[in-house]
Each structure stands twice: as C-alpha cells, then as structure tokens.
Amino acid sequence: MVGWEAYLGRKRFPLSELIAEYARRRSFICPVICGPKRVGKSVLAIRCVAQALRLLKAAKSAEEAFEEALKRVAFTPEEVFELIDRGYRVIVWDDAGAWIGTYRWYSEQHHDMLVKFLEYWNVIGTDVYALVMTTPSIMYLPPKVRDDECTVEVHLSIIGSEVRFGRRWRRVMATMYSHRWDVYGRRLKVKEHDAFTALIMLPDPVYREYLKRRERYAKLVGDSLKAELEAAKRVWAG
C-alpha cells in the first residue's frame, strides 16, 4: 500500500515554499493557477497547500496535511468568507473566475457580489496569508485582482505522463509570473519564480472527497446560471 508521504512528495514545490514563506511573514499572496480544462489546477492547488502546511508545521503527518488542505477548499464566495471567519489563513478558491469574472455583467446579483469582493480585496491581507485561486485564464479575473502585485500567475501545461503507484499520472510544467509595469505604464509579465514540474496526483480518499464536493458545486453553478439567464431573458423581453 502506498503511503500518504509518497503522495505529498519529498521535494517541496516552489509554489508550496512561496505560500509558506508569506504565511510565516503574515503577509499576503494570491497565486492564480491557470491552464486548460482537466490539466490538474485544483489537484496542484491542494497538493501545494498540503506541502505548505507541512513546511509550516501545521500538520504532523502527510495524511493530516492533505485532510487539512481539503478543509481549506472553497467553491463559492460564501464558502471563502466562512473559512476566513473560522480562522483559516491559507485558502484555496476553486474556480474563482466563475464568481468574480467580469463577464457575467447581465446578473445584478453577481454585480453586487463582485463590487463587495473588490472592496474587501483592499483589506484581504489582514485576514488571509494566501488565497490560491484556480481559473482557466487569469483574464477571467477583474483587473484589480490580476494586476495586483500580490498576485502570482501560475500557468500549467501538460508535458507528459508517468506511471507511479500502479497508475498513470499527468506531468505538468508550472511557470510562475508576477505582473509589473515599465516606465511607460505598460503591463509586463515577469518570470520571478522558479518553474517546476509536478505529477498531478492525490491520495484516493482525498480525491474522491474532492470530486464529491465538486459535483455538488457543479450542480449549484448550473442551476444558478440557468436562473440568471432566465431572469435576463425576461428583462430583455420587456
């Protein structure tokens, strides 16, 4: 039987170390993990947070680290704020772009939520040390978030696969960028952090629990979008 420590990995990823570093300093960082569908954004986020918790000695074992990382996964704005209220300082916001993306302009409820979140963004560092977001593209996020100097873009691309523990896993390359401006006011992507490769893998119990929660969330999003579109149709119809 494969132990939990093998899934956590002996070598800590640069992103895990970055999260732990900011948590130690009680500062704030927002890694945004981007990439195509099914590349493994959420799996990498959970694994990096689990590694960071071990680095911070907030978990005594690999099993506890994964369990604690899973507790820190939020799918909706309400869940994010609930975790903050419960005292969690390192949080994963899975599919954040679906909620704070500016493309859902037709929804008054979404607009109000987005305005409130962007107001809170000004002071989020008082409550959170690391907010790890996943989204297909950083351009889904509002400029205030994606252009912030606290935001680090982590772009994933598949570079192959490997067989480990009797299963085949995707291997990805993670390239990390920060955003800066030159003297002419042009926005630049600066590669400030070490790129790294990672196998997209989680222990089966953790992955099954994540999928169970993800399925409930997917239904919630689908129902919400249908309701918003129906409301928009009624408005357009006059």
Please give a structural write-up.
With 238 residues, the chain is an alpha/beta fold. It has a single domain (4-237), classed as Rossmann fold (3-Layer(aba) Sandwich), CATH 3.40.50. The chain is built from 9 helices and 8 strands. It has helices at residues 4-8, 14-25, 41-55, 62-71, 77-85, 97-100, 108-121, 143-146, 204-237, and strands at residues 30-34, 73-74, 90-93, 130-135, 151-164, 167-181, 187-190, 196-199. Strands 1, 2, 3, 4, 5, 6, 7 and 8 form an 8-stranded mixed beta sheet that branches.
Topology readout:
Layout: H1 4-8, H2 14-25, E1 30-34, H3 41-55, H4 62-71, E2 73-74, H5 77-85, E3 90-93, H6 97-100, H7 108-121, E4 130-135, H8 143-146, E5 151-164, E6 167-181, E7 187-190, E8 196-199, H9 204-237
Parallel strand pairs: 1-4, 1-5, 2-3, 3-4
Antiparallel strand pairs: 5-6, 6-7, 6-8
